[in-house]
Amino acid sequence: MAKNQKGHAKKEQVKGKAKEAVGRTVGNERMTAEGKGEQAKGDARQAKEKTKDVFKH
To answer: Which one of 39, 42, 47, 54 has the fewest CB atoms closer than 10 angstroms to its CB?
Structure first.
């Protein structure tokens, strides 16, 4: 389960970066903001998984 969650976090980060880049390129502020939000969500999920790993060992 943990690998699945880590993978999902990484996908969110990558998807967010791509969306942010496209938003900047086309000048769409909303898309840029959504991309940043997805990156933050992925970062938070990844931090949560790292914290869980610390307490497992």
So the answer is: 54
